[in-house]
Fold:
Amino acid sequence: MKTILELCKQVKDASRILPVISAQQRTTALQTLAEILISHKNEILKQNQLDIQKGTDQGLSADILDRLQLDSQRVQCMAEGVQTVAGLPDPLGQTFDDQILSNGLHIHKQRVPLGVLAVIYESRPNVTVDVAALAIKSGNAVILRGGKETLKTNAILVDCIHAALQKAGIPQVSVQFLDDPDHKLVDELLTMYRYVDMLIPRGGAALHTYCRENSRIPVITGGIGICHLFVDDSAELNKALDVIVNAKVQRPTVCNALDTVLVHEKQISLFLPALLKRMQQEKVIVHLPAELIDRCSLASNELLKVLEEGDYDREWLSLNMNVVEVPGLTAAISFIRQHSTAHSDGILTENEEHAHRFLQEVDSAVVYVNASTRFTDGAELGLGAEVAISTQRLHARGPMGLQELMTYKWIVQGNYHVRV
Structure:
């Protein structure tokens, strides 16, 4: 195996070649990758099952196993995502802010790739394909470091990516995969600021904290979502209930799944019984303040728990959910400011003034009015896929697609101009 330094040098060299490779070659590579994923589906699922079996033997939780699991539909979705990225407009060389100065200089900005990305992630093998597809399309080279629990699945997916690159005449080293689970390799990777331009960790809070505190490479963090929906006093309750169920149940193990429902005090007596009934049908464990349980004469059971300290600041990633009564919009916004991770938060309302105020005052990466938080996803928001969901302010927020993997350079054209 190459040393980290050797690998990073090779990837850096590839990053200088990629921007001059034609758009057609990069598109062909992605179209070929989509075909290879489908034709190798059975082998991919076989390797994934080996990872699942090993994870089961090691006692991984059901939630982690769900994030790790691939099936025929998920492989199909991966391939379709790659096809979507392939069909997006080529971002390389796009120009903007074109102007001619009073001295005759013609200037504009031109989009260029960031260079070399390093992405460290856990559990979800679809990240391997999503990140590689976006990197190839945007002319970036990438180093992938998946979790040890997905080693066999990621290895075969990278084989598919390399086969597609080779067929399109693009250097395979453009996409590199660290297949050794030794954590010392990550520590060494974090020091490679001369060769790696951006580090993107995708995983739990511990991974993000470790990367921020130890990386010498600029880091973009995100993907930790403590997500809220506020049921306003004007909300249509049946419709609001459908949105809440979707946000919580459709796929509870992902970062854009709902964690806390805030209910206006004027709605609590009518809405809470309906909400609890629906959550019981969906096998969702609801966590309520003790005072609210007592006031509503509710009995604790396996699907109704008393809120404990720290529950408001927990990303459940499971069929668990908090429900909180608030006196109004101001209190809801204040609660979200205190407990949100600035990922995805929304309001369910028929009051346009309240909706406007919520949009203005809630500063999350994605803010919703009358929609499920599950739409915080690159594919759902028209990006084809995403490298990560950034909850930072620099330089990207929300799903990071092609445009977020680009920077720009100034182009200045003169006629032998000199500065006076």
Notes: The first strand starts at residue 95 and ends at 100. Residues 82 and 402 are 13 Å apart (CA to CA).
